[in-house]
Design brief:
By secondary structure, this protein is of the alpha+beta class. The chain has three domains: about 120 residues, Acyl-CoA dehydrogenase/oxidase, N-terminal domain (Butyryl-Coa Dehydrogenase, subunit A, domain 1, Orthogonal Bundle), CATH 1.10.540; about 100 residues, Butyryl-CoA Dehydrogenase, subunit A, domain 2, CATH 2.40.110; about 150 residues, Butyryl-CoA Dehydrogenase, subunit A, domain 3, CATH 1.20.140. The protein is about 50% helix and about 15% strand. The chain has ten helices and nine strands. The strands form three sheets. A four-stranded antiparallel β-sheet has the order 2-3-7-6, with helices on one face. Helix 1 packs parallel to helix 3, helix 4 packs antiparallel against helix 6 and helix 7 runs antiparallel to helix 8. It is globular. The structure holds 3-thiaglutaryl-CoA and flavin-adenine dinucleotide.
């Protein structure tokens, strides 16, 4: 169970009133699952640099994999606010748990659902929704991170199959994956999506070790050495960089909600600790400097919640622009990492201990501020949207 009562989780502007009964039910059931399944083991998993055993099947069982994918394909057919609330609750547990769910949902199931053939949807989506199969998403390469259009991974055409060569780096769940959605250039230099299965010869997934961040998540490479990919594994409905970037819109949206969860966990812990911890004869919560921090945390969390709620309604109406999503991802991740760092200080020496979540969240958020587009890249996307001038290159 968390160190603080669940009644202290903030809803300062009564945003719950904007949610439906179904939203609240989903949010509260994922919240309870995080309390009972994730929190008791997350510190040990992160300390040991190991993923939580059986996590994907558990996420499948609670409906956290592909929540907005139609039920016909094993999803839950939920709306975007529900998806966001699920991500928020998972990341209150740990960014690794949200990462597992958001990669599977937004970066693996979404492209198969949106750009796949009916056969591909029926073959892969139900297994991914249940967590029986684990997926990964390969866009980033050793030499091309922020600039995926320069990717080198490519394939050539041979009768009934393609031959895929190249490598991807920093790939969440690569060492565990049963399949990877891989973005590679076709012989004309167009970016296409391919579904690569674990058993395909020439495909390997070495693990990236020694991370100080997202230690409860497996990261690795995807290496393709003349991998024979059947032609029916090409995603037929998209060509060009907008394919992978559309998936990122969905994942970045989920992150905007998710990091509110990490911030809430730090905030609630800091409130509780500062009320209990006494120095100079009174609770440290009674000192103005500590109250300033708590007041600012609550202000920033409330602003982020309102931003996400509105973005969710726009997304439900299919009106959220990629630049609006970038603004939310950038703002909310910075908000969360600042709260994690400042709240850690409020616990003094205890703040560095694994019994409290701040160091773990702060370290995790160093990845979150980098992946799915860095903090700087999202600023440039906003700058481009304001001015019409591309400052990337
Ligand atoms: P640019 O010329 O602007 O665009 C190329 C084509 O793509 C379209 N487009 C988008 N479409 C949908 N959604 C978006 N967000 C889009 N952004 C652009 C655009 O309209 C164009 O289409 P068309 O039809 O005209 O061809 O592309 P660019 O090469 O200048 O790059 C733009 C830039 C820098 C913003 C983009 O490449 C970018 O976002 N870079 C950041 C890379 C990134 O975010 N990588 C993430 C990798 S995945 C990951 O980190 C997973 S973490 C997993 C976990 O949670 O554990
Ligand atoms: P670079 O692109 O080399 O950037 C380095 C620095 O330069 C950054 O600060 C950046 O903001 C800055 N910069 C770059 N270009 C510009 C510019 N034009 N103007 C100003 N500044 C610029 N990728 C996947 O495809 N799938 C995954 O599942 C995945 N999971 C990940 C998990 C983890 C734990 C991590 C850390 C990363 C993951 N990534 C994944 C990769 C992630 O998306 C990239 O790390 C990210 O896009 C940045 O790329 P890079 O690391 O190559 O940094």
């Amino acid at each position: 169970m968390p160190y603080y009562p669940s009644t202290s989780i903030p809803d300062y502007y009564l945003i719950d009133d904007l949610l439906t009964k179904e939203h609240l039910l989903i949010r509260d059931s994922v919240r309870s699952w995080v309390d009972s399944f994730v929190l008791p083991q997350i510190d040990q998993a992160a300390q040991d640099h190991k993923d939580i055993p059986g996590l994907m099947k558990e996420l499948g069982a609670i409906g956290a994999l592909g929540p907005y994918i139609p039920q016909k394909y094993g999803g839950m057919g939920l709306d975007q606010i529900s998806y966001g609330l699920i991500m928020q609750e998972l990341e209150r547990g740990d960014s690794a748990v949200r990462s597992a769910a958001s990669v599977q949902s937004s970066l693996v199931m979404f492209p198969i659902y949106k750009f796949g053939s009916e056969d591909q949807k029926l073959k892969y989506l139900p297994k991914l929704a249940s967590g029986e199969w684990i997926g990964s998403f390969g866009l980033t390469e050793p030499n091309h991170g922020s600039d995926p259009s320069s990717m080198e991974t490519h394939f050539t055409e041979h009768e009934d199959h393609y031959l895929l060569n190249g490598s991807k780096m920093w790939i969440t769940n690569a060492p565990l994956c049963d399949l990877a959605v891989v973005w590679a250039k076709d012989p004309e230099g167009k970016v296409r999506g391919l579904i690569v299965e674990r058993a395909m010869e020439g495909f390997s997934t070495p693990e990236t070790l020694n991370k100080w961040s997202l230690r409860a998540s497996k990261t690795g490479e995807l290496v393709f050495d003349n991998v024979k990919v059947p032609k029916e594994n090409l995603l037929p409905e998209v060509s060009g960089l907008k394919g992978p970037l559309s998936c990122l819109n969905s994942a970045r949206y989920g992150i905007s909600w998710g990091v509110i969860g990490a911030a809430i966990d730090c905030y609630c812990t800091a409130v509780q600790y500062s009320l209990e911890r006494k120095q100079f004869g009174k609770p440290i919560a009674g000192f103005q400097l500590q109250q300033k921090k708590l007041a600012e945390f609550l202000t920033e969390i409330t602003k982020a919640q309102l931003l996400c709620w509105r973005l969710g309604t726009l997304k439900n109406d299919d009106k959220a622009s990629p630049a609006q999503i970038s603004l939310a991802k950038r703002n909310n991740v910075k908000m969360a990492i600042d709260i994690a760092r400042e709240s850690r200080q409020m616990l003094g020496g205890m703040g560095i201990m694994g019994e409290f979540p701040m160091m773990r969240h702060a370290a995790n958020l160093e990845s979150v501020i980098t992946y799915e587009g860095t903090h700087d890249i999202h600023l440039l996307i906003t700058g481009h949207d304001i001015t019409g001038i591309n400052a990337f290159s």
